[in-house]
């Protein structure tokens, strides 16, 4: 069962994050509108304050796309 208080806290934190990072939120919105397809590649790079970087990527399978759509509430 979902805790309503936890959902309200999460909603508030998302609104704060969105206010701090509007370009990233617009990026996520564009991805949602465009949709991701099998074969799409997600590439992530994180640069730490000391300059060290971490990078990884994945090529989406049909199952991955289905999971992303389910999490986004889009169904099939």
Order of helices and strands: HHEEH
The largest sheet is: 2 strands, antiparallel
Shape: extended
Task: Return the average pLDDT rounded to an integer.
Answer: 90
Biggest sheet: strand arrangement: 1-2
The low-confidence parts are none
Instruction: Estimate nothing, just give the exact number of structural domains.
Output: 2
Number of strands: 2
Q: Estimate percent helicity.
A: 40-55%
Separate helix tally? 3
Strand content: 15-25%
Whole-Å distance between the termini?
A: 24 Å
- What is the CA-based Rg, rounded? 16 Å
The helix-and-strand class reads: alpha+beta
Walk me through the structure.
- This protein has 76 residues and is α+β, with helices and mostly antiparallel strands.
- It folds into two domains: 1-34; 35-76, no CATH class.
- The chain is built from three helices and two strands; from the N terminus they run H-H-E-E-H.
- The model has no long low-confidence stretch (mean pLDDT 90).
Index terms:
extended; alpha+beta; two-stranded antiparallel ribbon; 3 helices; 18% strand
How is the secondary structure organized here?
Blueprint: H1 4-20, H2 22-34, E1 41-47, E2 53-59, H3 62-71
Antiparallel strand pairs: 1-2
Summary, kept brief:
Helix content is 53%, strand content 18%. It is of the alpha+beta class and 76 residues long.
